Amino acid sequence: xxxxxxxxxxxxxxxxxxxxxxxxxxxxxxxxxxxxxxxxxxxxxxxxxxxxxxxxxxxxxxxxxxxxxxxxxxxxxxxxxxxxxxxxxxxxxxxxxxxxxxxxxxxxxxxxxxxxxxxxxxxxxxxxxxxxxxxxxxxxxxx
Length: 143
Known about the structure:
Layout: H1 2-27, E1 31-35, E2 41-45, E3 56-64, E4 68-73, E5 76-82, E6 87-88, E7 94-97, E8 101-104, E9 108-117, E10 135-140
Parallel strand pairs: 2-5, 5-10
Antiparallel strand pairs: 1-2, 3-4, 3-9, 4-5, 6-7, 7-8, 9-10
Protein name: Lipoprotein
Organism: Leifsonella bigeumensis
């Protein structure tokens, strides 16, 4: 009998956890904005919002509008939102992505992610005006 209660309790906790995760995704995550010593802006998710699709994201790490860190590919430039915990490496124009490594301007990035139109992202109103592009991409290097 004790085994059944434990199993039921674990199943209940799993359902509660799944609801909490889905609720978090529905509400979307906020953005954390960091600025380098030279005034360049990094956008990172405040918290993880769930799994990314298997879509591949590739591009060169560049500045968007001479201000914000982003990616460019085939002539298009995208405001880029990096995973939670991503930060600017002090005194450089590099970013550090936890568990993945660093990106310097001009480096190639390949990973998972998702493209959004600027207005469809839940945090679009948090993107600074100088960082706005028609589309943005939320990246996840671990796909």
